[in-house]
Amino acid sequence: MAEGLAFRCMPRLILTCLFFYIVNGQTYTDMNTLYTDIFTSHQKSFLPNADFSTALNVTLKLYLVAIVRFDEVDETVDVSTGIQLTWADAGISWNPSSYGNAEFIIVRHTDVWTPKIVLVNSVETYESIGKGYDVFVTIYYNGTVVIANGDVISAKCTANVYKFPFDSQTCDLNFVVWGISATNINLIADSNPVDLSFYRPNSDWSLESSTGETIIWNGYSNFKMTFTVKRAPLYYSMVVACPTLLFSVLNPLVFLLPIDSGDRIGLSTTILLSYAIFLTMIRLAVPVTSNPMSLLLVMMIVTIIYSGIIVAVTIYTSSLYHRDPKPKMNKVFKFFGSKIPWRKRLLAIRPMSKDNEIVVVKSDAEITITWKDACNGLNKYMMIFSYFVVFIVNVAYFIASSV
Q1: Burial of 385 (0-12, 13-18, 19+ CB in 10 A)
Q2: In this structure, what are the phi and psi dihedrals at residue 56, rounded to the nearest 5 degrees?
Q3: What one-character DSSP code corresponds to residue 251?
Q4: Mapped to the 3 state alphabet, what secondary structure does 332-358 carry?
Q5: Is residue 105 left, alpha or beta, with left meaning phi > 0 and alpha meaning psi from -120 to 50?
């Protein structure tokens, strides 16, 4: 039984020994000798290309870590990224069996030639990604070199807030090897050019899509990373859109107040001033540096304009209400005074009647229309017209935002 157990365990024991032999075969002496042999005569001052008649191929892979901040007013986006570069160094190669089966070596980036990757549409200085941090490169026995840099970069991104706060923004990150044209270095996108393995969502912006490709741009090989983010609209809907809608609904209610109360002008003016103060409070929240202009901002401008019109009409109707009844009334005011909405017929007391009976008046000329009647009719028409404008403006905004 013991022999059978030992026989069954033998393959596992062989694989375990082989694993330790392969992984831990090299010693410090092996690595020190390898490093000395590689870099004694290694030249890192020029491109490590095996054939200078063709461009050196550098494979680029971008790791998107986070969308840190998007500023619509300044039209900038801050992105946390990592960039992995891979190329073949023609001046480095060795036989792993001569150095304890060491298939790779990890050294400082200053020991070998490395490309200077720069963000072209940066809003800061054109420094290399990583800004010269002390990073390491991995060199394989066949000359393949891999380096990974990371940084928080700020890029210019033109904002389109036409549908704010239901908007989406598309931004580009353009990377080139600084100072070396496409005839000498050719950037190649990795099979998975934009890796989201380390991505962490942003509370204000959700990542909709991301792509990466290489193009020739002004004689330089350019890696272009494009991503689209969508705004979370709840906060701005509650803080900006809902109060704007509330102000637009409150304005026409001024025409329901009796003119004799004396509060109509005060209420309409108070609503207008409150809305003006509200605009100053949210001017930093609503982007204004966009072409085309934000639909929400247009709706707010329309609201404050017709709010001012309501104040003017309220003052005018108050003056008409207290006008001397002697001046002759024109047909327009007679129409407002006689065709009051929701009143299907006019009632009057026929003069010289014995019983003072109430009769139905079929003609406007049969009764006397006062300035008070004209003001009451004008108020009701203005309220209907105001709510019609509110309805059209809000429906147009939501339809245009959803398209």
Answers
A1: middle
A2: -75, 125
A3: G
A4: HHHHHHHCCCCCCCEEEECCCCCCCCE
A5: beta
The CB density around residue 8, as the number of other CB atoms within 10 Å, is 9
Pairing of strands 205-217, 168-177: unpaired
The set of long-range contacts for 218-222, using a CB threshold of 8 Å and a minimum separation of 24, is 219/181, 219/182, 220/176, 220/177, 220/180, 220/181, 220/182, 221/55, 221/176, 221/177, 221/181, 221/182, 221/185, 221/186, 221/187, 222/120, 222/174, 222/175, 222/176, 222/187
The strand ranges marked E within 275-381 are: 346-349, 358-361
| Stated pTM of the model | 0.76
**SS3 category, 391:** helix
Between CA 226 and CA 170 the distance in angstroms is 7
Give the chain's radius of gyration (CA, Å): 39
> Tokens for 129?
């990604």
Neighbours of 56 (CB within 10 A): 22
What CA dihedral angle connects 49, 55, 61 and 64, to 10 degrees? Answer: 120
Can you tell me the distance from the alpha carbon of 338 to that of 365, in angstroms, rounded to the nearest whole number? 10
Contact 161, 290 (CB under 8 A): yes
| pLDDT, mean of residues 4-16 | 38
Task: Report the phi/psi class of residue 164: left, alpha or beta, with left for phi > 0 and alpha for psi in -120 to 50.
Answer: beta
Asked if 148 and 82 touch (Cβ cutoff 8 Å), the reply is: yes
Structure tokens at 401: 């935002």
Residue 237: which of 78, 397, 351, 44 has the closest Cα? Answer: 397
Asked which of 134-143, 291-300, 301-310 is least confident by mean pLDDT, the reply is 291-300
Confidence of residue 345 (pLDDT cuts 50, 70, 90): very low
Count CB-CB contacts under 10 A for residue 291: 9
For residue 342 the two structure tokens come to 């929701």
SS3 content of the chain, % helix, strand, coil (to 5): 40, 30, 35
Residue 2 scores a pLDDT above 60: no
Distance set, CA 139 to CA 10, 107, 153, 401 (Å): 36, 8, 27, 53
Both tokens assigned to 58: 């550098």
